Automatic annotation (TrEMBL):
GO biological process: DNA recombination; DNA repair
Species of provenance: uncultured Campylobacterales bacterium
One Pfam family in the UniProt entry: RecR_ZnF
Functional summary from the UniProt entry: May play a role in DNA repair. It seems to be involved in an RecBC-independent recombinational process of DNA repair. It may act with RecF and RecO.
Start and end residues, zinc fingers (C4-type): 56-71
Keyword line: DNA damage, DNA recombination, DNA repair, Metal-binding, Zinc, Zinc-finger
Alphabetical list of Gene3D superfamilies matching this protein: 3.40.1360.10, RecR Domain 1
Gene: recR
Protein name: Recombination protein RecR
Protein family (similarity comment): Belongs to the RecR family.
Domain of life: Bacteria
Presence of keyword Repeat: no
PROSITE patterns: RECR, TOPRIM
Residue span, Toprim domain: 79-164
Entry GO MF terms: DNA binding; zinc ion binding
Amino acid sequence: MKNHKFNTLIETLSELPTVGKKSASRFAYHLIFKDSFLALKLAHNIEDAINNVKKCGVCQGISESEICYICLDSSRDNEKLCIVSSPQDILIFEENKLYDGKYFVIEDLESFDEHKLKNLVLSGVNELIFALEHSIGNDALILYIEDKLKDHNLTFTKLAQGIPSGMSLQNIDIVSLNKAILQRTKT
Ligand SMILES: [Zn+2]
């Protein structure tokens, strides 16, 4: 087969989310002919991350130990717990210092670990903040969680209006996100 190895590389790259065949082909050409040092660094970093990065056993965020540095940080506000739909959302809040409480990731209902959330709530949480994009699915999720935790005397809040439906936190500008969390409202 002609250029079998090069074509396999393109096909593999095109399996990445948002990467089409055209970009995959451009990446492959760049990695092999323009910057093979970058290519090897990338291969090494991917392997290193796969072997060392995991999900935090408490909040399900990204961690390199059983429990992440945020969950272990005793200087944070333990009374606030922010529910996000992906570990990357935590990075946005952290990189921009928008929030000083704890987090809990719920990517979908199937992987949602109710027991872990209840344990966290029992550690002294009094406000649960839903930092989720507007969608019918998330509205249902919020109702579901509120029902599960109704006996814990919590205040349930969500980000202020202004986050367009269908837009993820990762696409919102930081000023708007900061405003949304400061002006959060009761659900
Ligand atoms: Zn954690």
